[in-house]
Amino acid sequence: MTAVAPESTPDSMPARAVRGGADGRRSWGLARTVLRVHRAALTVWALAVIGLSGWLVCATEVGAASKRAAVEACDRTDQDWCDTTMGWTGYGPSVEWIGLLTGYLFLAVAAFAGSALIGRELESGTARLAWTQGVSPTRWLAAKLAVPALAVTVGATALVLVYRWAWAADQDPLSNGWKAGSAFLARGPATVAYALCALAVGTLIALLLRRTLPALAVSVATTGLLGYVVAQFRDSFWPALTITSTTQDVEYPDSAWELENGAVIHGRRDPDFDIWQCDGTVAEGRRCLDDLGFSGTYLTYHPESHYWPLQLVESGVVLAVAAAATTAAFLLLRRRTA
What is the pTM of this model? Predict the structure, then answer.
């Protein structure tokens, strides 16, 4: 008697495939739940990104038009010198504020992560209710982090791209250029890195405190302190250049980020040496400097070409903190729910 293989039916599919499909549907269901619960926060985030981008575009276009008008007005005059920077009135402050808000939006992300995203659900017991409905704590936390992380990455990247376009189109001649704190963060991936780090740190603190308001305050304070500390070491993230001169003046690029300057005394750099302590005639001053061992001056600085190395190293440092905070959050949750 010949055996006949049974026809394939949905009920006879391998259990692994069934579990895979169920897991996929469950993961998508979790993502939809996160979107539905936090749709107000996501809407505010989208409006903030659109509003800042629109403000920047308007400021840039108006600033460019004002600059062209100032240049044309100068061309129509017979004066030997004409101030074309007057066309930038109002443009510089707008771009400074937009850069500041863009670079430090991570504080708002930390507040959201510590309060509404994690802290409120732990305090109200909503998280434990979800864990009793067939959703593991690990899967719950992964969904809680994945959706905001995607929104934060897309929004922050859009702001960085718009800011880079505006900054490259018309730089305010009265600003501090690339080394300014607002422009430094807002023009590169460090903005995205800080936002993701704030999300991770806020989540970890919320899991530790399990209270909404304390988690909000501590998350903002911690991420703000992190940003301050990293900024203090920013100039050391890439080797700086040092130039010397045998005279009292050192020539360097106008766009340079000056870190330290001073005199070379007995072959050693002395940033505290007062070169003007030797007064009198030129000969007397020269003799005084020789007696003190003065052989020239020096300047340590970062050229504008160091922007990307500094930016990428800082982004890597912040992302490393974000990875450590995320790992600690999952380990803490697993330990408390074991």
Answer: 0.81
